[in-house]
Write a structure and sequence with these properties.
This protein has 152 residues and is α+β, with helices and mostly antiparallel strands. 36% of the residues lie in helices and 15% in strands. Helix 4 links the parallel strand 4 and strand 5.
Length: 152
C-alpha cells in the first residue's frame, strides 16, 4: 500500500529516510528512478516479500512455471471423465447415422451407462460395440462394466 510517497506495509517499520532528490528546474520534486544500481536503502521495501530488499526471482522456479501450468491444464482436461472419453470413442466407432441412437450417459462405481434410442439395438450393440468400447477405455480407466439402457 502506498501512502503519499512512502510505502506502508503491515504495520512494520517504515522505509528508512532517503536523501532528498535534487529539485527540478520547474520547482517540482523529482523522485529518483528505481533501478538495481541504487543503494538498497533507497529502494522501497515491502516487508511481506521474501528478501530484505524486495522479492527475489528464483530462476529454477520461474523456469518451472510454464511446465507446471501445462501439466495442470492437462490434468483438468476432460480426459479423466469416462463419459466424455466414451462419447469420443463412440464418435470414432459408429457411423453418424447409428451414432445418433447411442449416447454415454453416466459413470458411477465402475459402471458406464449407455442409452439406446431403440430397444432392438440392445442385443447387437452388446455383442459388437461393448467389447470394442471396453478395449478402447481399458488402458485409461481400467476395467469398466458397460450397461445398455433402452429409451424406447
Amino acid at each position: 500500500m502506498k501512502k503519499g510517497r512512502e510505502y506502508v506495509t503491515r504495520g512494520l517499520p517504515p522505509v528508512p529516510d532517503r536523501p532528498a532528490p535534487e529539485p527540478a528546474e520547474s520547482g517540482e520534486e523529482v523522485a529518483p528512478r528505481l533501478s538495481s544500481a541504487l543503494p538498497p536503502e533507497w529502494l522501497p521495501r515491502d516487508y511481506g516479500m521474501a528478501g530484505a530488499f524486495g522479492a527475489y526471482e528464483v530462476r529454477r522456479l520461474a523456469r518451472a512455471i510454464p511446465e507446471s501450468l501445462r501439466r495442470l491444464t492437462e490434468a483438468l482436461a476432460d480426459d479423466d471423465d469416462p463419459v466424455a472419453a466414451a462419447n469420443d470413442a463412440l464418435d470414432r466407432l459408429l457411423p453418424s447415422e447409428a451414432r445418433r441412437h447411442v449416447n454415454a450417459e453416466t459413470f458411477s462405481d465402475g459402471v458406464l451407462t449407455l442409452s439406446l434410442a431403440r430397444r432392438a439395438d440392445r442385443f447387437n450393440y452388446s455383442r459388437s460395440l461393448v467389447p470394442k468400447l471396453q478395449a478402447i477405455l481399458r488402458p485409461t480407466f481400467g476395467y469398466l462394466r458397460i450397461t445398455l439402457v433402452a429409451q424406447g
